[in-house]
Amino acid sequence: MTDPATTDPHPAHAAPPAAPGPSPAPTPDPNPLDRALLSFDGPQQPVVTLALDFAGPPPAPSALQQRIAERAPALPTFRGTPASNLRVPHTDAADSAALDRETDRISQLPFDLAGNVPPWDVRLITGPDSFRICLRTHHGFLDGVGATHAAAALLSDTSAEGARLHPPAAPTARALTRSLHDLARTLAGPRPWTPPPSTDPAPSRRTTGRDVPLPVLRHLADTHGVTVNEVALAALGMALARLRREHRTTGTGRDVLATVAVSTRTPQQRHLPGNLLGVHRLILPHRAGTLDESIAAVARQTGAVRNSRQRDALRALLENRAAPQAAARAYRAALRARVTPLVVSSVTVPGGLTAFGAPLGSAALLLNVFEGFPAYVSFTRTTDLVRCSAAADTDRSSLLAVPDLWAELLSSGRNAADDDPDR
User: Fold this and answer.
1) Element of type H or E holding 207
2) Alpha carbons 37 and 276: distance in angstroms, whole number
3) Do 236 and 344 touch, CB atoms closer than 8 A?
4) Residue 120 β-bridge partners
5) pLDDT tens digit sequence for 343-362
6) How far apart are CA 218 and CA 227, in angstroms?
7) What is the DSSP letter of 18?
C-alpha cells in the first residue's frame, strides 16, 4: 500500500454531477431478486466489480477518498448505508498483468453483511502510466447498470451518466407470457450445456478479459443491419461452439443457452439501489457455420424480445409484490449453475467520463463466480472499445478462454466482410 501524493494536483473536488431529468423515485425496499441474491451472505458472495481504467497520473488516494465521502451521502444509491469510516484501499501494480491479478483478487472478497460495514466499496489500483478505480458491491445491493450510474456520479470531474436507461411502457400480453415461460423452462426444462473444466493446469484467476476496438463490431453491425450487442452475442455463440469442439464434452447435443440480463431501470431510477433487471433465454447458435449465420440467428431472437416489449414485462413482474417470499425462492432456485449455467450481460459506459483529469479508456464489469453459481460473460462498451470478460470457477474454467476466442472471431469476421465483393 502506498500513497503517491499527499496533495491533489488534479481538478478540485467538484460537486456531485446533477442527475438530469425527472426527480428520482423513492428508495424501495429490497425486491424478491434482491432478497435472493442477498441470501448468499457467507464467504462466497456474488460481488459485482465495475473496473474503470483511466489514462494518466493517478489521484492521491486521500483525494479519491474525500471525493467519494462528499458525494456518496447525496446519492440515493448509498443513502442509508454506513459510510462514517469510509476508506479507499490502494495498491500499486507493476504492469497490466499485475493490475488484472489484483482486480481478480479483490473481485472475490466478500462483504460483512451482518456488521456495520456498507455492502459496497471503492478501490484504487495504480499502474505505471494509468490507474484503475474499482467500484465493488454485493449484487443484492446494486446491479451492473446501477453501478455505472453510481460510478459516474461518484468519480466524474463533470456531469456524466452511466448506461442508457429506457422509459417504461405498457407490457404486451405476449411478452408477459414469454417471460413466465422463460422462468418455467429455466426451473423445469431440459438441462442446457455447461462449460467444462479446462484441460490446462488449474487457472490462477477466476476472470479474464479481452478488448476489441468498437469500430470492428460497429462495421459488422452496420453490414448486417443489427446492433453492436447482437454482433457480440453472435461471436460469443461461435466461441462457445469452438470450446465444445475442443473439449469434446458430454452433452454436446444440448443447446448452448445464455440467460441474458435485461435492465428494467428507468431514468427516474438511475440512482436507486437494488436489482432492477430481468432475464431472457437466448439459444446461442453454436451450430452456425459462419459468423454471418450466427448474427442472423441471434438477431431473430433478440428482435422478438425487443418487438414484444419484454423489457417492460420483466419490469412488471419484478414490481409485482403479491407473493414476495415465493418469488424470492423462485429466483434463488434459478441462481444455480445446474439450471442457469451461463449469465450474459452488456453495459455501456458513455464517453466523457473523466476522473481527476484523466479520461476513461476502457472498463469491465465482473462478477464473482463460485461453486454452484452461474458462470458469467459480460460485454462492457466505452467510447472506443468493447471488452469481453469471463468469470468462472475451477469446475467451469474452460470458459476463461472465451474472451480470446471471441476477439479472434470478430477480427476474422471483419476481414471476411471486407473481402466480400457483394457488400
Assistant:
1) strand 207-213
2) 13
3) yes
4) 137
5) 999 999 977 899 999 999 99
6) 8
7) P
pLDDT at 323: 84
Angle of CA points 322, 45, 379, to nearest 5°: 85
Which three cell numbers mark 198? 479446462
Q: Where are the alpha helices (DSSP H) in 320-367?
A: 324-334
Q: Across the chain, what does the average pLDDT equal? A: 87
Q: With beta carbons less than 8 A apart as the criterion, state whether 48 and 137 touch.
A: yes
Cα–Cα distance for residue pair 232/407, rounded to 1 Å: 10
CB-count burial class (<10 Å; 0-12, 13-18, 19+) for 68: buried
C-alpha distances out from residue 214 to 6, 37, 185, 231, 352, Å: 37, 32, 34, 11, 16
Q: List the grid coordinates of 278.
A: 430481468
Cβ-contact 76, 27 below 8 angstroms = yes
Q: How far apart are CA 120 and CA 194, in angstroms?
A: 31
Which pLDDT score, from 0 to 100, does residue 189 have?
A: 77
| Calpha distance 71→271 (Å, rounded) | 12
% of the chain beyond a pLDDT of 70: 88
The per-residue pLDDT for range 16-35, each reduced to its tens digit, is: 444 444 445 556 689 999 99
DSSP bridge partners of 362: 53
User: Going by C-beta distance under 8 Å and a sequence separation of 6 or more, which residues neighbour residue 17?
Assistant: 152, 153, 156, 158, 159, 160
**DSSP character for 11?**
S
User: C-alpha grid cell for residue 283?
Assistant: 439459444
CA-to-CA distance for 293 and 190, rounded, in angstroms?
25
